[in-house]
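Hi there,

I know you've been waiting on this one. I reran it after we fixed the sequence typo, so this is the corrected version. Both the input and the resulting structure follow.
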Amino acid sequence: MVHGEIRRLRIDDFKKCASIWDMEKRSKLAEKFYRELQTGNRETFVYVEGDTYIAEGSIVFNMQDPDYTIDNQRVYCSRLIVRDTYRHRGIGSAMIDFLVDYSQRLGYKEMSIGVDLDNVIARNLYKKKGFTHVLFQGKDEQGVYFNYHRLKSGGLRAAVPD
């Protein structure tokens, strides 16, 4: 059950996201995200209850790769994460709905999102939210992942591996 609010992350509050994910352990990633916020290439939204940061999700406008972003057509949903103790309450679903709606209001017709192959819960959520078209399957230091794509008009289309 969702009881908080989703708001745009102010750059001055970026370090508060450390309560959601381990920014010290992933310092290079945190630095990259911070730079993208500074340049306007990333907009981050947080789900908060009171003063507690519970979830985070971002939209990235230019990944310099058409499998992720296409100018004025496709944005990338990045780093959608909910703190472990707050999962299974509909917060991730609310964040996706918000990010999709926000992107559409900006004029984007498509959104891509990456998810690790072994993250079955997230894959099922994304499928439910219309991310069903697999743009590609890749592998990085964290393992095999899929990059899904959602169309504005038809929801998410994809062959989601089970």
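Quick highlight: The longest helix spans residues 91-105.

Best,
R. S.
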